[in-house]
Design goal:
Length: 191
Amino acid sequence: MAQLTENEIIKKCQAGESLSGENLANLDLANQPLVGVDLLEANLSGTDLRNADLTDANLNDANLTGANLSGATLHRTYLVGSNLTDANLEEANLCGAFLSGSLLCGTNFRRADLRRATLGCPKCEVPGPFGSLTSFENADLGEAIFGEIKLIGVVLLGANFKDTYLYEVDLSEAVYREADLEGAITKKGRN
């Protein structure tokens, strides 16, 4: 099957058609309105999605390796099981997004809005403690839920954890200051 062009993708989105399983690798979809689009299992590796509006989109099990989502709106977006290796989500709005089971390796969440987002899964470890650091520096994680995850090679410096629920989260190999976790709620109570 031939790869869709940017114009064909936009037309399909406007018509409410699914792009599930499509190869959209390395395309320029920056600044596009992709609200509610179905991108289940789509290949978006290397795709430019800067400032795109992916509110309520389905990106479950999508390959977003190396994708640029800086400044994108992913409000209430489903990213369950997606591959976000080396993806750039700097200053993205992921408020209420679902990222459970997503692969985070070298993922950039600097200054992203992750309020009320859900991250983590049982036995899910963030790989690459040296060289591929995932960064939540200065991100807003207020009221987010981190569940059953070992944060290896993750930078949390300056992140807001006010009312963030940390359920069985192992921070032993993460980079943070105690002050960064002020106001977080753990399984045993507040930090």
